[in-house]
Design the sequence.
């Protein structure tokens, strides 16, 4: 069995090789090179692979994407329509995402930013106690990551709801499904958390029409994709007071340009796409397990439905 690694932009690619060698000691492992000959790989593990990979390696049986979102891989024009695309199922990312969202939620609901502003002034002022029932959380997207986020916020007493394209049932979480239910979901949501996958249906969803349906003074936390957000609409909603703040981890252009208005806006918190990092050991163990199942003729799980985009 031959495994090809094409992990663009990782300065520590050798660590992936070593990790896969430990998990799959009988496998032949190659690393993608733009000027190399075809290696006739059986499987490819990729992150933002070059288009040439799929025209050169024509015997692939499956391709594994090491990030949570597969939109970048699905947009590669040479990706064969019949090649199974298999995504990671959590691999340690859900709990990181939940931690990030909780931090952002506590930042606004507990007034921690206000306390930091008081600190250099030596201002000992106790702000009103948080009433969690007033900080309703709504999670857009109830896949594995969204479910974990919703369960985390609910576990701390924040009234939590989730919205998904198709119906889901989660204990302790109010759930909404389908486009007809979206207005009611938004109307009860003071802190909106976006963890949707990027598809044609979700692109530009965080825009003026959606913001207008949130309660005035709502907050937005975007840990999905930068292409979900219409940036000018966010700035306008903050200027008008329809939104009180935003915590953004993903952007249309990354790294976020130094001159971008988000860096200097007092109501926007920027982090550099770090809400959930790919954990190498967990990812390699999961991919190796899926390959072993495929080699045994079993279902590996996690195969992407191309029509849905996830």
Sequence:
């Amino acid at each position: 069995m031959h495994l090809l690694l094409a992990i663009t932009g990782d300065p520590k690619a050798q660590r992936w090789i070593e990790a896969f060698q430990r998990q799959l000691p009988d496998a032949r492992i190659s690393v993608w090179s733009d000027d190399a000959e075809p290696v006739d790989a059986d499987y490819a593990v990729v992150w933002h692979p070059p288009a040439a990979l799929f025209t050169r390696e024509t015997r692939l049986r499956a391709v594994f994407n090491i990030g949570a979102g597969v939109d970048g891989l699905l947009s590669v024009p040479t990706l064969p329509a019949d090649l199974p695309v298999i995504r990671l199922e959590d691999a340690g990312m859900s709990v990181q995402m939940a931690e990030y969202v909780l931090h952002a939620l506590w930042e606004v609901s507990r007034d921690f930013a206000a306390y930091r502003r008081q600190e250099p002034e030596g201002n000992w002022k106790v702000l009103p106690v948080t009433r969690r029932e007033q900080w309703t959380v709504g999670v857009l997207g109830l896949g594995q990551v969204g479910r974990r986020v919703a369960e985390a916020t609910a576990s701390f007493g924040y009234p939590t709801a989730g919205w998904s394209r198709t119906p889901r049932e989660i204990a302790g979480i109010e759930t909404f499904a389908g486009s007809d239910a979206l207005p009611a979901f938004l109307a009860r949501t003071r802190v909106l958390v976006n963890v949707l996958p990027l598809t044609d249906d979700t692109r530009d969803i965080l825009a003026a029409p959606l913001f207008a349906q949130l309660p005035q003074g709502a907050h937005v936390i975007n840990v999905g994709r930068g292409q979900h957000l219409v940036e000018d609409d966010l700035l306008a909603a903050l200027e008008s007071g329809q939104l009180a703040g935003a915590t953004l981890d993903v952007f249309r252009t990354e790294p976020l340009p130094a001159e971008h208005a988000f860096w200097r806006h007092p109501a926007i918190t920027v982090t550099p796409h770090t809400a959930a990092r790919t954990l190498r050991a967990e990812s390699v163990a999961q991919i190796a397990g899926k390959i072993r199942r495929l080699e045994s003729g079993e279902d590996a799980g996690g195969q992407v439905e191309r029509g849905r985009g996830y």
